[in-house]
Amino acid sequence: MSEIYNKGLLIVISGPSGAGKGTVCKELMKKYNYNISISATTRSPREGEVDGVNYHFLDKKSFEEKLSRDEFLEYAQVYGNYYGTLKKGVEDELNKGNNIILEIDIQGTLQVQKVYKNAVYIFLLPPSINELKNRILKRGSETESSFNLRFSSVGEELKYMNSYDYAVINDDLDSAVEKVHSIINTEMNRISRMNLDKFLEEYIF
Ligand code: ADP
Ligand code: 5GP
């Protein structure tokens, strides 16, 4: 990262289950090499999910041990399981000047907002409630009760949208990815985020 940035930019992406957060983040990583923070969770891996790639899959005891050692930047119980962001990975990346994306729920976002006032907060929306339902079902990852839990939380989750800076509707995947990418690019050009003193030195004579 250029020396006009003291630190990397923290980006938070939230939205209802099935909105496409994971899919959008994966594309951002593939296409533009974004860093996506790997959360810890007590949820069981879905088919194809790999420990240390999709999540750090922990049992409840290990998660609670990390909690008691204050290793989490934020954590929450979401749909009946613990999820949390480990401080170290995020702080290391930001200190190296690298941007990093957190894909976390609303409760976690409210905690992060207390620490990172300058982060960029993006809420991802599905194009319709029907499409949201189709997407969760299409993913084929949920039991009937976990589907009901996720689907019935949508109304409550949407109430918190105003805590975010941007809303992106994930209708066409490529356009949603481009929108998120351009939001991040725009935010990086804020004067308040830059360290321009050195750059401006040669103009002062
Ligand atoms: P989330 O991480 O928000 O829970 P996922 O990324 O797992 O959601 O996406 C849920 C399902 O919807 C997946 O099957 C994914 O392939 C599909 N999906 C995501 N984005 C789109 C899109 N723009 N158009 C169609 N299907 C999508
Ligand atoms: P899933 O089980 O579908 O992967 O994720 C369920 C929910 O947990 C999603 O809303 C997702 O954003 C959220 N989540 C994933 N990782 C974290 C995390 O580290 N912290 C918090 N607070 N929520 C998370």
Would you give an account of this structure?
This protein is of the alpha/beta class. It is 41% helix and 18% strand. The strands form 2 sheets. A 4-stranded parallel beta sheet has the order 6-1-7-8, with helices on both faces. The model has no long low-confidence stretch (mean pLDDT 95).
What is the CATH fold-level name of the domain at 10-37 and 98-201? Rossmann fold
DSSP strand count:
8
Mean pLDDT: 95
Q: Indicate the low-confidence ranges by residue numbers.
A: none
Bound molecules: adenosine-5'-diphosphate, guanosine-5'-monophosphate
Helix segment count? 9
Annotate the secondary structure layout.
Blueprint lengths: L9 E5 L6 H12 L7 E2 L14 E2 L2 H9 L3 E7 L2 E6 H9 L4 E4 L2 H10 L4 E6 L3 H11 L4 H9 L1 H5 L7 E4 L3 H16 L8 H4 L5
Parallel strand pairs: 1-6, 1-7, 2-3, 7-8
Antiparallel strand pairs: 2-5, 4-5
Helix pairs in contact: 1-8
The chain binds adenosine-5'-diphosphate and guanosine-5'-monophosphate.
Give structural attributes.
205 residues, alpha/beta, Rossmann fold, four-stranded parallel sheet, four-stranded mixed sheet, 9 helices, binds adenosine-5'-diphosphate, binds guanosine-5'-monophosphate
